[in-house]
Amino acid sequence: MVGGERAGLRERTRRAVRAELAEQAMELFVERGYEATTVEDIAAAVGMSKRSFFRYFAVKEDVLFGDVEEIAEQIAAEITARPEREEPWESLRVVLGAWEGRIHASQRELAGLRLVEATPVLRARLHYKRDELRDRVADALRDRPGSGLDAFTADLLVAAAGAALDAASREWLRSDGTADRAALVERAFAMLAPAPPPAAAL
């Protein structure tokens, strides 16, 4: 029990340090620009060495996306836990819509999105991380009890859900963060909802 508690404390401490690094990095990126900000700058802002930084993040750009793996695990778990008879698209709408609100709830995210949009290396890394997340979500859709989804359908549904979130995000960015992001997400999911199968002939 003691060992488990210590491991849990270490993990919480690790998450806190990663969050602090991400916050400081964002401030420096916005103030100086991504390319002009070094790993040494980010590390120094929290009182650590460059070598210590790489204990928490493999590369500089991951400081903004380092929590994607954890988020992917939680989203996958929530997808798998949805009601057995619920349509896959509805599961995606409910779970991803809720996560969209949790991830992008503040004005601070507006600066982050603008930074990513303006920085090719960050955009590339974001797409890579999103692909990883979408693979996890597609697997979770197929793993649901009674799912019966094939890989193609799961991939297609998750790609469409990702497109809905991306479109809502870009529209929110165009509005300078004034648009109702949740309403944009709902609208996008409604527009892309799969058509019901045709009724069987009598």
Write structural notes for this entry.
72% of the residues lie in helices and 0% in strands. It is globular, with a radius of gyration of 19 Å. It contains ten helices and no strands. It has helices at residues 2-32, 39-45, 50-53, 62-65, 68-80, 88-103, 108-118, 120-143, 151-174, 181-192. Helix 1 crosses helix 2 (39-45). It folds into two domains: 2-59, Homeodomain-like (Arc Repressor Mutant, subunit A, Orthogonal Bundle); 67-192, Tetracycline Repressor, domain 2 (Orthogonal Bundle), CATH 1.10.357. It is mainly alpha-helical. The N and C termini lie far apart (63 Å). InterPro entries: Homeodomain-like_sf, HTH-type_TetR-like_transc_reg, HTH_TetR, MftR_C. It comes from Actinomadura rugatobispora. This is TetR/AcrR family transcriptional regulator.
Characteristic key phrases:
0% strand; Arc Repressor Mutant, subunit A; mainly alpha; 2 domains; globular; Tetracycline Repressor, domain 2; 202 residues
